[in-house]
Structures are given as structure tokens and as C-alpha cells.
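Sequence only, no structure available. Ideas?
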Amino acid sequence: MRMHRRALLAAPALLPFGLPFAARAQSDWPQRPITMLVPFVAGGPSDITARVMAAKMGGILGQPVVVENRPGATGAVASQAMIRAPADGYTVMTGSIGVFAINKALRPNLGYDPERDFAPVTLAVTTPNVLVINPQKIPATDYAGTMAWLRANAANASYATSGVGSSEHMTMELFKLRTNTEAIHVPYQGGAAAGTALLSGDVQLTFQNLSSVAGHVAGGRMRAVMVTSERRNPTIPDVPTAAELGLDDFIVTSWQATMASAGVPAPILARLEAAAIESLRHPESLQRLNQVGFDVVASSAAEFRRFQAAEIARWKTVVDRANIRAE
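Reply:
I predicted one. C-alpha cells follow.
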């Protein structure tokens, strides 16, 4: 009985030592470099966004933020690596609309749940998709000429994307349904690889994030014939919107966002959120991201969570109506 009383009396004495230790560990975070996973190859929109953010977040947090590309399985490889990592804030991921929204709508056996398994940090940037052609393969100067070629070459036309379920894939499949045209889907591991396929003539056309192709369009290596934004984009002011070309309700905005693991302590999440937002709003970051066609959002974590839920619901409707299935 006396031993039981001693144990009860001793137990409260442990509390003042245990709780402050955990609090100190969180307040001292970070004490080592942070890894920012990118679920695609280098050079694509997720990679560009991650590297711009990492360059500034390191100084803000006092520890390096190291970008690590983990391509594969349309984002599942990096996502599962995130799930396996300790929920301590030292591993985050910057990925796309496909990874954080479309995959859940398209793939019932995804292997991860972008809402359940991840904690939102920020919606970083948005960008419209643009329909671009290889001018050596499609001898057209505008949308009408592209459509004429596409109808005349339905059996041989092919388009590249950054993977099954990517925003480019979904956009092109909707485009095919709306215009009653055909083209063979050729998926690649990332937007940069898809762009290279178009430049080399392996495919004739593609929808790509404007940020990925703006330089090639400006240099004449690709020709832009339609943009999926609500209004014309100042980066390509001469390119008409889908609505101008008669495709109503065809606004598709791709986006990049940053997530941490579910279970990361709230104080660490708050520091990640603040650092991510500050990094995106830095004048040098704004200039770099605007230059390649991104609109910087830098939302709060709560705003991003609401946006993500709405996007998942939207793309689930699109998948069902268009009868799109993962390969």
C-alpha cells in the first residue's frame, strides 16, 4: 500500500519535466536540414516552385531546405515516402494538383490519402494550362488550323502529359470530349519530359502548365494556340482563351502546393506555414515565379485545406462524367 502511494505521489513530479522537454524540442525546431520532396523530375512546375521556396525558407528557418526529386507512379512514390517519414516537420513535399487532388478522384487504390495523410502548409502558386503544338509537325498558326490538322490526322495524332491523372491529361481528355477529336495519350514522368517529347517531335501537341512552356513559346520552338484561364495571360497576350474560341466552362487552373505529414505538431506546422508564405512573397521569389507564368497565392494552411477539398470534389465529378480511368 505504501509503495502504491509513493508511486502516485511521484507521478505528478514527472509532468513538469516531460512536458517542457517536448515544448522545448518544438520551440528549438529546426535543428537540422529539412528535406522538401518533389514527386516529379527536375525542371517541371513542382520542381521550380520547390526550389524557389527552398532558397528562401532556409534563411528564414535557419537551416537548409534541400529539394529531393522522387518521381514515379504519378506522385505515389514521393507521397508514400512522406507517410513513412517521422511526423517531425523535417520532411515536407511540394507537389501538384494531380498529387494532392486529381489522384484521389481518379485512383480508388491510391496507397495514400492526400487529405488524411498530409497536413496542409500552403497553396503556393496557380497557373493555367496552354495548348501548344510543335510547329514543325502541325503546320498551323492558330487554333482553327490546329483543329483542322487534328481532324485530318486523328489516327496519327498523339499528345504528351506529365502522367496519367495529371492536369494536362485531364484537360486533354475533356478537350477531346468537347471537340469530338482523337489523339493518343503518351504519359511521361513530369512536365519537363513531356515538353521535351513535344520539342523532339515524338508527339505533336500537348496541354502543359504555362510555366513549363512559356520560354519555348517565346523562342518559337512551340506554338501556343489556346489558354485555359478565364482571361488572357499577360505572358502570352496574343493567345485566346478557350471561351473566346467557343469552349465555354473550360477553365482549368493547375496549381502547386506544399504539405507536411499528418501528425506534425501544431507549433512546427505554424512555423512551416509562416516560412513558406514569407518565402513565396519575397520580391525575388515573386519575380522568378511570375516570370515563368505562375500566379503566387501563398495561402494560409486553412485556406488551402478548404480549396483542396473543393478541388477533389470537382475532379471527381469530371472523372465520373468523362468516364476517365487510370491505366
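Strands lie at 34-38, 65-69, 91-96, 118-133, 158-161, 184-187, 205-209, 223-227, 253-261, 295-296.
Hope that gets you unstuck.
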